[in-house]
Amino acid sequence: MSNKHDEQFERETQNARIINGKQSKPGAWPWQVSLQLLHPKLGFVGHWCGGVLLNGLNGDYWVLTAAHCISNDAFNFPFSPLWTAVVGEHDRATEDGFEQRIMIEKIYLHERFKEYHHDIALMKLQKSESLQNATDRVRPICLPTEDDVDTFQGVRCIATGWGQSKKGNKLENILHQTELPVVDNSHCKQVYGTIYNIPINDYHLCAGPITDGASGTCVGDSGGPLQCNLLDGRWYLAGITSFGSGCAKPGFPDVFTRITYYLPWIRGKLRLGGDGFHDV
Fold it and tell me: Which residues form the Peptidase S1 domain (predicted)?
């Protein structure tokens, strides 16, 4: 990868965002999480990345997010006291009474995470009585059950986040959403491999416009969900936002961490309460 391309890619992927999306309705995505950071030197930064609320196996709750949100070129902060998960959030500028701020108990990055590969992490939430009773505004997402690479192709999939809605703007206060079709990984292999020399593997999921003239998007909040509506009417987690090529570039789909690939890793962590090693 040339220095020019490397610098361009780093610059364009610093701030993930939803481009040309629309505002979500309050409570539409009750598993959406805002991960807030307390920086050791800069103080309280606030919203840093998106995340997804999961049910544990022992009455506990977890947040699934992108590993690069926690460990990247700027910092390496896998320390639970620095992070807070905000659930029930819709408008970050106002308090409507549905928000819950929950501290993190433990953080687990994938053991093989490096740059654009195995970009997945789990955060175990501290016990909270308010989370025990699911509401319309706070509810864990369903995980897929089949390790089938074609499960989410041809169905309605939506990315959500508080990222920028226009290039150069500040983060959005209101949660936004944009519809992204899941496409074959060959499209991402061609463009990312050719231009950026980034290998696309089975653990990546490709979604977004693949032809010129399509309504382009940038990636939603890093770590946020790509959720798909399957035939049973439920929404399932297909991917978590990992990286993209830049804002609204037709022909450049966004790249997500493919959840079906990591089901053994996720379930292993949930089963052990996060303790122990379970790789894929």
Answer: 18-271
